[in-house]
């Protein structure tokens, strides 16, 4: 425990009074540590690609590489810039959620938004020859469009990214009394049991050696969004078989 102790003593008539104020600072200290870790982690995550990007730019600037080689390197530079942009966007989204900055509440056609998001990813779905099975109701929902788009995007992106070639993604979106239930299941790498609770923590990535790019912020953002709408997210998974996320709002 981190305690702050203050004593004040007074002398009144014949008796001594001592007032002891003990303040528990554990939460504040923990919060400071989380912030310190967050900044050092985020700084490191950005420093590496910036250094690599600068190295590539110098190779081109000094004409150490030219022609098709330079073209190849510039493609890598675009990928690095995209990664950094995604990382910064995710950090801004998290900070927006943590500081309770809300956009306007609008009526959202969830089915349309889901289909638009799938359309946005159609190239990566095709590239991996993934089959998508949909069981989606017409549902309208009062919410912030930025939140719901981000929720669908992050869940679908993971289901593609961690899926196998020729795998399947099954999506159910149903209204059940006054609850909305969204289930997304893929036939991919799966998540080891010991990691299943931790995947919602920011920057947590299962087995860093996996080659898929990512920031480790996607599910932390989804969990924040789900909490904002007083909902609940859970995961079930068997390694190399399936991963199934259920969101109830
Ligand atoms: P990112 O995908 O950027 O690493 P996320 O927060 O979205 O970050 O996910 C955290 C981790 O959870 C991922 O690194 C991955 O190991 C695991 N994960 C998330 N979704 C899936 C999924 N559908 N199948 C297997 N593993 C997953």
From TrEMBL:
<keyword id="KW-0812">Transmembrane</keyword>
<dbReference type="GO" id="GO:0000155">
    <property type="term" value="F:phosphorelay sensor kinase activity"/>
</dbReference>
<keyword id="KW-0472">Membrane</keyword>
<keyword id="KW-0808">Transferase</keyword>
<keyword id="KW-1133">Transmembrane helix</keyword>
<keyword id="KW-0418">Kinase</keyword>
<dbReference type="GO" id="GO:0016036">
    <property type="term" value="P:cellular response to phosphate starvation"/>
</dbReference>
<feature type="domain" description="Histidine kinase">
    <location>
        <begin position="41"/>
        <end position="249"/>
    </location>
</feature>
<keyword id="KW-0597">Phosphoprotein</keyword>
<dbReference type="GO" id="GO:0004721">
    <property type="term" value="F:phosphoprotein phosphatase activity"/>
</dbReference>
<dbReference type="GO" id="GO:0005886">
    <property type="term" value="C:plasma membrane"/>
</dbReference>
<keyword id="KW-0902">Two-component regulatory system</keyword>
<protein>
    <recommendedName>
        <fullName>histidine kinase</fullName>
        <ecNumber>2.7.13.3</ecNumber>
    </recommendedName>
</protein>
